[in-house]
What does this fold into?
Amino acid sequence: MTKNEKILLGHGSGGKLSHDLIHDLFFRYFNNEFLNKQTDSAVLPVDSGLVSFTTDSFVVDPLFFPGGNIGKLAICGTVNDLAVSGAVPKFISTGFIIEEGLPFKDLEEIVRSMAEEAARAGVIIVTGDTKVVNREKCDKVFINTSGIGILEPRFRHIGTGEGICPGDKIIINGSVGDHGMAVLAARNDLNIRGEIKSDCASLNGLIQKILSATDGVKFMRDPTRGGVATVLSELATGKPYGIMTDEAKIPVNRQVRAFCELLGFDPMYVANEGKVIIVSDPLAAGDILKIMQEDPLGKEASIIGEVSGEYHGKAWMKTGIGGNRILDMLAGEQLPRIC
Amino acid sequence: MTKNEKILLGHGSGGKLSHDLIHDLFFRYFNNEFLNKQTDSAVLPVDSGLVSFTTDSFVVDPLFFPGGNIGKLAICGTVNDLAVSGAVPKFISTGFIIEEGLPFKDLEEIVRSMAEEAARAGVIIVTGDTKVVNREKCDKVFINTSGIGILEPRFRHIGTGEGICPGDKIIINGSVGDHGMAVLAARNDLNIRGEIKSDCASLNGLIQKILSATDGVKFMRDPTRGGVATVLSELATGKPYGIMTDEAKIPVNRQVRAFCELLGFDPMYVANEGKVIIVSDPLAAGDILKIMQEDPLGKEASIIGEVSGEYHGKAWMKTGIGGNRILDMLAGEQLPRIC
It folds into this structure.
């Protein structure tokens, strides 16, 4: 494989070139007992009970951006989807769709990042698939990651938020909007390069610390596409409670705020890839905040609002200038292809 | 959604349009208790033991072909990967990457086919993801399906083929090359329209019948990309046995054979999407053949060869003209984007 500098259609044929790519690249970096069996399905041990199962496709443009790349993002995204369901992420699948002509060194860097992030998060990449399409029929590379996590039955309410009630606190582990703005800044056609770094990170370690320490977590969700506003709006929709947040409590990095103002974006709607929103029992909120703030991934954690007996079905924000505004779902497309 | 005739970038934003697409299309067709919880991860019950986990991305061109479409194919492909591992397929995830401008009616027809095939195969689509990319950055729609099946420990050897030995029989449930040639014939630029239909089908029902009736199955694999030749070549590689097949015993439909001859393809290397190769104990081969032949998906089943104590590490075929030729792995790309 290393003799070929670019990916060819034959690397997706299922024949000799596919076989070589799989062995020389994927097995080399993702090496583990499950994948090494080289079967189309991985056979995995699962204790009796509940599993969480999730899928995400990644089409981010550009592939590489400050703080990460499509490979790291694909691992973090799926790990976080499992973790916020209350599960311990375990097994990951990878599906690559590659544009003919992709430089092999780019693919290798992506795969290397995936292996590195998987090791950091404690998950194993157990099965995969590779397709190659003709030039100009996809954009460099798209990656699907699906994942399986083990869910303790006592945490099964966390994904849906059953049991949320007025008085519950809304907590976030840090600043909003970093990922979307970092990707946007990395786009060559904008020609803006700042110090904005994506927050792309696997949060399962931090989340496990919190779940081990307290029974007060009522709901978790990672505010990716659509941002914090969309998560809170979805959470309130159709519910006998409302959500009230305080703009002054929502951490936004200085450069992100400046860049958003310049371009007319609202950081509350910009994607994050290393953030979790937790709705917690008010008695547990202090402990959760403390655990977050002691973790490198939660230093800027903040209680940003609470569940209210008023405003049924809606999420609101007290603005800096003293008014209240509604946080509705994003209506159109704000930033295409940020994940 | 139905008011919009085409998919827009906003349908992949994670906001209001995404929400509407998910509710009006995916939830409507894929409706089930797991998906309806609308969480990013599906929470699934799993009995203690082993699960099979697999992933496949589908990029077939054209999207619609005689005998199926990309949606049906995506369900059958993942169901079959699980079934040939010896597992009972249970849960499927779907990841859509859609090109802006895709007619909504095409997407709906694809989704409808997926729901129909999932119902036929007895699997549930429990979680999903949708991305939309700009025009000309993908080709209409790509679909990833990942799947989870439950594997009885007594079948765990079936995916890897441990225990295969000389004398074992090699059985296929019908004609080879139908899928690849049907897709090729459906391509407008070739302007050839025959009566060739893809064999695209979920085989888990047939496979379960066989596994319930006999303990003699030593290995199964679905000969998709790379065809029957690539499966047999991979199976023999590095093993202390060889494989000898008989060309006269390999079922090939008349039109497929003619089309292959015309275009210079070898049906042994052409993809199938409704075929399974079984290596069985010689004492069980007759029963397996009978079960296949009594099933609509196995009427043309045939014992096509056997495992040999000679030819270590290689797969061979006795040709119609009396010689032997080696079945090597496909070297380059024969037919891009047939799955």
The two ends of chain A are 29 Å apart (CA to CA). Residues 262 and 290 of chain A are 34 Å apart (CA to CA). Chain A touches chain B through 85 residues (CB under 8 Å).
